[in-house]
Design brief:
Blueprint lengths: L1 E5 L5 H8 L3 E6 L3 H9 L4 E2 L6 H8 L5 E4 L20 H12 L3 E6 L7 H12 L2 E9 L10 E9 L7 H6 L16 H9 L1 E3 L15 E3 L33 E2 L2 H7 L22 H10 L3 H15 L10 H11 L9 H17 L8 H9 L14 H18 L67 H9 L32 H4 L11
Parallel strand pairs: 1-2, 1-4, 2-3, 4-5, 8-10
Antiparallel strand pairs: 5-7, 6-7, 8-9
Helix pairs in contact: 1-10, 3-4, 4-5, 12-14, 13-14
Length: 532
Amino acid sequence: MQFMELFAGVGGMGLGLEAAGLTHLLSFELGDAPHDVLVHSGKLAIKMDLRDVGNAVLAMRQVPDVIVGGPPCQDFSIAGQRQITDRAKLTQHFAQIICLARPEWFVFENVPRAGKSSQYKYARALWKRHGYGLTEAVLDAQFYGVPQRRERLFCVGRLGEIDQFLLAELKSAATKGMVVRDILDPKRDDDAALLAAGAFFARPWMGKAGEPSGRGVISIDEPCPTITRNRHEAPGDAYQRHPDGAADIKEAHILTPGQVARIQGFPTAFDFKRKKQKRAAEGWPEAVVNLMVANAVPVTMAQRIGKVIFDRHHGLSLPKLGPDFTDFLLARKRKNPKSKTLSDRALENIRHNTNRALRMCDGRIYSDIWRQIAHLESGFDKTGKPFSAMTASVQSDLRNAIIAYCEYRADAKRFPPSDWAPAKPLARDLRLRAFAKPVRRKRKGTELAPATPHPITERIGKTVTWPPPYRPGSLDPELSALMDMFDPYDHDDPYIPQPPAIDPDEAWRPEGYDRDDYDGYYEVDEDDESGG
C-alpha cells in the first residue's frame, strides 16, 4: 500500500504511516526548511506550490493508494490570529487534487475549527460529488500514543463507501491516555532531571497584566498541553503563578527541544538539521526547528490511523456487528406480519452469514447496494472457495445477509450523520438507495397499459394499442399487421436494405464487376502489339 504526502512539513504523518506498514512514494512541501529536512531524511520530496493543482497532479506520475495531508491551519487555529486569508484556500486546493488524482483513500488533518469553515464545506461537497465516503472525527492525541492534549479533525475518505464507514475502528484504536512520564528514560540526563523535578513548565497564555497567567506548571503524571513553537521556553518576569500549578515555578523543569520532539512522537534519532552553533553556516535556527516540530502531525497518532486504514484496505479487519444488529433483525421481521419470529439459532445464522459476506467483500460497505452484491459475487471465503462454487441456498443466504446489513447501516437513527454533514442533502444525493421492493400491479381482466401513439404505427395508417390486448381464441388483425412488419424473413420491405442478387452463373466474376467503369480499367489498346 503506497502513499503520497501533501503539505508534508518535516514528514510526521509520513513517518507514522511508514511505521504502520505503508510505503512512501513522494512528498510535496513548499517551505525551504521542511523540504530540506525531508530530503536530508531520505525522502523523495518536491518543492512546489500546491495552488498549481494541475501541475501537482502531473508531478505525481502515478496514482497512489492513499494521499494524505494537513493544509496550513494558522487561519483556523485558536493559537493563531483566526483571520481567513488566501492560506485557508489551500484546503480547497487539497480537495481538488484529491478529486483529480482519484486515489482510493485520502486522509485530511486540521484543527477542529477548520470543520466549520466555508473552505472545508467546499472540500467536503467536492469529495461527496466525486463518490468518496467520508469518516469524520475529532481525535485527541493523548489517546493515540502521544502524551499530549492535542485535538485534531481527521477526515478519512474512500471511494464508493458509505459515510462514517471507519468511525468505529478509529474509536477502537484509542487506548488509555498517555502522560509525560510514559516516555521518559531515566538513562537520559534531561529525562532524569525531569523525573527528579516531577513537573515541567509549559508556556501558557500569559493573561492580562496583574492577573494570574494560565496554568503553566504541569505534572509529569499529566499529558502535556498542545505543543507550540514556544512551549519549551522559560517563564518571563511577567508570569503570575497559577493557583492550580503542580509545583513552584522555580522547581519546574524546562523542557529541552529533544523532549518536545519526543512528545510529538518523533524518534530520538530523528535529525531536524539544527544549527550546532548559533552562527553556524549549516543547519536551521532553533526557532525554525521549533516551528517545524509544532506544526507536525504526531507520529504515533498517524501510525494508529494508518494501521486502521492498512487493515481495512487488505481485508484484515471487518465492521463489527453490534448488539443492536440483532434488535434490527427482529424489528425488520416484525414489519412482515406473515413471517414467523426469528429463533435464536436463526439469528445466529444470520450474524454468521453477515460476517462471512463482509469477509468476502474485504470489509467494504458500499453506498450502492448493487456494487456490494457484485463484490460479494466475485469474492472468496476464507477457505478460498469462490462464491460461484457455492450452492444456490448458500448464495441466497449470503445475499440476504449483506442486504440486511446494508439496510442496518443505512438506518440514520442507529448511525446518525457526522457533525459536519450538511443539514440539507446535496443536489446530487449519494445516500444509500432504498431497498423497498417494486410494486407489482395485478392485471384485472383485459386491462393493460393505456393506449399510446408509437411512430411505428404510422406505417399502417392509424394508432393502435401497444402492447396489444389479449383476446383468447383469436389474433387481433392489428397485432398481425405489426408482426408482419417485424418479420425478419420478409425481404420485400423497402425499409430493409436488401443484399444484391447474384446470378449463380456469374459467381466467378471478381468483386466490383458490375461497376460502369470496370471494363475501362482493362480495355486493350488495339495498337498495342504486345496485347497487354
